[in-house]
Amino acid sequence: IANQISDALHIPEIYFKWVAQFCRKITAFNHLNGDDQLALMKHFCFHGLVIRMAFNTDPVKFGYPMIVNDSGSEAFFIDFNLFGQIKREFINTYVQFWISLQTELENDLIIRDLLTAQVLFSPEVNVSRPEFVRYHYLAYASLLRKYLEYKYQNEAAARRKFSALMALVDEISEIKQFE
What's the predicted TM-score (pTM) here? Predict the structure, then answer.
């Protein structure tokens, strides 16, 4: 557990390092020019954070463990009750969404990571090589669908799960526009 509030000041830096590291691990991302990489990362930051937060939100404790160092060995728990009554409706809306997404992710790292990679290659982003980005968006969507088919051994169940995940990704975009 982090001992000082000053540890929390490093959270944005740690998160942006994670975003850069995640992106660099994807070969296709490295084949884009710097401007396209930056444009995709800017769009991805919010979406990636929401997916990661949903994966780790604790609905029972009504909060989220926030990592405060590069190694992930120190964290502090953000208690959503600390935001007070003024933000209660706003926080409750987010928590309900995170719980819905968390339910669909099923604590499955493969679903989380394939969905996260798909979101990185959003065709909504204005880039110099939109066909390249769209191709990889669809490739990760296909990998996610195939993984779900393998996991469930039932094409209809896999389609339902995939549709639910895509609806939640659309909802992330709506939340971002709302802010």
Answer: 0.77
